[in-house]
């Protein structure tokens, strides 16, 4: 029991959650307005699209791959949503379904190049990052579509009765539970970790590496499209530049949450904690009138910490384990 408690307290997930609590407490004590319901409403609205994309991105990176096209998928989905509305598609469920289908197809293109042709995901998704963003500009150019029904735009951010929390956070919660079950409680999840540690060994043990990775890329595209629909309705505007640079925030959150950039390690609890930590920190610093350039520097610094930190923590834990083992052996020999 003592060893298990020590393991939990020393985990990277705990470090992230403690960091989140410290940011909240320090912000509330030093920055005016950082503890108000209005502040937390904006934090949650910022968290929603990042969390939606971070859920499948966690699986992608655990397998040893990466998808840098997610923000461009979001942007292209926004323009498709706006263009279809302009063409006369006035049913929100139909628009949502078509956008999710588009996102799945875009993710499938990434998955096909990575798993079908054996190309590195970094190179593929850098290419599709530019391709999908370029297609977004082809669809709308510099125009914006913004004449959506008020019930759509207000409905996307309507608070849960009696609170200031947007109801769409419940959608994120349900999806987080689904992804968490798949990753942590099913053979699919065990296969995802196995292929991240050693794809060849996973293949020999019966894991369908190519098929699993393909469908993870499809899921990433679909979730990015869902984030695009939310983005469009939240800001009541479909533009080709929607979500530009969001991939940095997503990758930073996933890595800061303890997922190894080399694959095979990490979990969703730490990732969701990191999403909340980054959003809270960013909004707190904005209230403190910190310049946007400084916020970018902080995000980049945290990205570096997220890569180095878990590895250093793992090395320290291993050294302490070896020291305890050596001490126990010495005591046994002396006895």
Summarize the structure.
This protein has about 325 residues and is an all-alpha fold. It has helices at about 1-10, 10-30, 35-60, 70-85, 90-115, 120-140, 150-155, 170-185, 185-195, 200-205, 210-235, 245-255, 270-285, 290-335.
In one word, what is the shape? Answer: globular
Helix content: over 70%
Count the beta strands.
0
Rg:
21 Å
How many structural domains are formed by the residues?
1
Give unreliable regions as ranges. 1-7
Could you tell me the strand content as a percent range?
A: under 5%
Mean pLDDT across all residues, rounded? 91
Order of helices and strands: HHHHHHHHHHHHHH
Under CATH, the topology can be stated as: ABC transporter involved in vitamin B12 uptake, BtuC
**Architecture in CATH?**
Orthogonal Bundle
Please give the oligomerization state of what you see.
single chain
Distinct helical segment count: 14
Describe the fold and architecture.
Helix content is 77%, strand content 0%. With 335 residues, it is mainly alpha-helical. The longest helix is centred in the C-terminal third of the chain and has 43 residues, at 292-334. Helix 3 (37-62) runs parallel beside helix 8 and helix 5 (92-116) packs antiparallel against helix 11 (209-235). It has a single domain (31-312), classed as ABC transporter involved in vitamin B12 uptake, BtuC (Orthogonal Bundle), CATH 1.10.3470.
